[in-house]
Amino acid sequence: MPIVWIAIALLVGALQYAMPQLTRRDIFFSVTVTPEFRDTRPARKILAEYRRGIAIVTMFTLLLVAVASHAGMELAGAGLLMLELLADGACFIVAHRKTLAHASAPSSAREASLQAQTTMPGLAALLVGPYLMLICAALLTRAHWSEIPDPMPVHWDIAGNPNGWMPKTWLLYVGMTAGELVLCLMLTFAIVGMLYFSRQIAASGARGREERRFRWIGIAALLAGSYLAAALAFLPLSPRATFSFGGVTFFLAIMIVGSLELLRRGQGGTRVAPAADEPIIADGTPDACWKWGAIYYNPDDPALIVEKRFGIGWTLNFAHRGAWIFMGLIAASVVLSLSLPLLARLH
Amino acid sequence: MTKNLIRVDLSSPTPAYRQIADAIRTQLVNRALKPGQQLATVRQLAMDLAVHHNTVAEAYRTLAEEGWLDLRRGRGAIVVARATPSASAKERGALRQRLRGLVAEMRTAGVSLANIRAEFDAIAGQNSDEEEK
Questions:
Q1: What is the domain partition of chain B in residue ranges?
Q2: pLDDT tens digits, residue range B21-53?
């Protein structure tokens, strides 16, 4: 088990180390700078100090995971990973504050297409798919309820073998399925938000083309995530339906490949479309609206989802009402996960 | 290639709604936008340009008042076939005044009269080509 925590701690460290290189060239540690700033001495110094901090935090986490494992406290791994993330966040905030002294005015250029948005054919069916899978899983589980062992499996290892069990109750099954439903809802929310409530920064040229591809790969990864969440609902039937773990692996593989492709392309596809001759289009999010460079709050911005300024992917505009619906779904998912042991005890 | 692209510069002294209206009008006059074509919604365009809804709504309203767009609730903005009106003497005077100002601005920036004439001929030529199509 400690090998899993060590692998995750290393992965987190490696990602945090690489993050500054993955963002757009006109943004450095979440601060708007000139595209040439990265090549200057102060920028290199800030980056080196940040990376030194990340390396120390990662080493320290690995050491603590090993010590905790040696002391038989394997569950401490999750807590140590949280601490690693917090310490990485502190390294980022220090670098962000140092970069603020070198901030420049963002580009005031904006571009957009006047064409009305068209819905992708078949998208609605793709979005509904995971919910149909959840219904199928519930009906199958009901039909084969007596064949599910007691205690029932609730956790599986990488090879698909159950390694965690809880007393078999209907409430536990309903709680698990509700958790999967909430996960699907969160991912559907993110996909719809990406499609209809987020902006494409560059609309023309090589940058616009690559950004469009980047967004579609992100949407495909999210869609695979919602199918993965729904496939989890079949797992309690695993001894009968061995295909269910294959489904989980398939959708997980799509998510991983999609995420790796996003990393290769860099934020907004900018690493594969440097297009030096094209004008820089700013992301439209003022520096002042980013709290600690990570939390976006702008009541004047109609977008619900905006590009993250550090690393890869997107984040919420917390001034938008929709952001709180998403936060509500996250809270529901946490409450459901924590209440599963209680549900298992209730008859 | 992205069709019907518009660009605005938020640091320009010209208000953003005017820039949006001017950019759309240019495409309407050039027939890059055809009658019956549906435009991006106010919400979508405001989001893409990272400006307030009201800025885009004002630009669309201006164009609707000029007879270029039909803004019916629930249908978005649709380009309409617009009969070419005959400009009144007063309107022509106002436009001439704006043109004089623009020419003066170009001269101030160092553009020669020959170049201004060439630019004007090119733009006028482009418009007449589109009208003939």
A1: 16-79, 89-132
A2: 999 999 998 889 999 999 999 999 999 999 999
The answer to whether residue B40 neighbours chain A at the CB level (below 8 Å) is yes
> Which residues in chain B are closer than 8 Å to A303, comparing Cβ atoms?
47, 50
What is the spatial distance between Cα A305 and Cα A317, in angstroms, rounded to a whole number? 6
Tell me how far apart the alpha carbons of residues B78 and A111 are, in angstroms, rounded to a whole number. Answer: 20
* The pLDDT value given to residue A186: 94
Structure tokens at A289: 């609206």
In tens, the pLDDT along B45-95 reads 999 999 999 999 999 999 999 999 999 877 789 999 887 777 788 888 988
Residues of B in contact with A117 (CB under 8 A): 40-41, 44
| 3-class DSSP state of B93 | helix
* N-terminal to C-terminal alpha carbon distance within chain A: 32
* Interval A124-175: pLDDT, tens: 899 999 999 999 999 998 898 888 888 888 877 766 777 778 888 888 888 8
Contact list, B45 vs chain A (CB under 8 Å): 112, 114
Transcribe A112-180 into DSSP letters: EE-BPP-PPTTHHHHHHHHHHHHHHHHHHHHHTGGGS-SSEEEEE-TTS-EEEEE---HHHHHHHHHHH
For residue A216, the distance in angstroms to the closest alpha carbon of chain B comes to 17
**Helix, strand counts (H, E) of chain A:** 8, 9
The reply to whether B45 touches chain A by the CB within 8 Å rule is yes
In three-state secondary structure terms, A305 is strand
pLDDT (tens digit per residue) in A300-344:
899 999 999 998 999 999 999 999 999 999 898 888 888 877 776
In this complex, is the C-beta atom of B80 within 8 Å of any C-beta atom belonging to chain A?
A: no
Model confidence band, residue A96 (pLDDT cutoffs 50, 70, 90): very high
Q: What percent of chain B has pLDDT over 90?
A: 57
Class of domain B16-79: mainly alpha
- Whether the ω angle into residue A151 lies within 30 degrees of 0, i.e. cis, is yes
Give the minimum alpha-carbon distance from B93 to chain A in angstroms, rounded to a whole number.
32
- C-alpha span between A141 and A147 (Å, rounded): 9
The whole-number pLDDT of residue A266 equals 92
SS3 assignment, position A325: helix
Give yes or no for B43 touching A (CB within 8 A): yes
pTM: 0.83
Whether A114 sits inside 8 A of B40 (CB atoms) is yes
Q: Is B69 on the interface with A (CB under 8 A)?
A: no
- DSSP characters over A52-103: HHHHHHHHHHHHHHHHHHHTT-TTHHHHHHHHHHHHHHHHHHHHHHHHHTT-
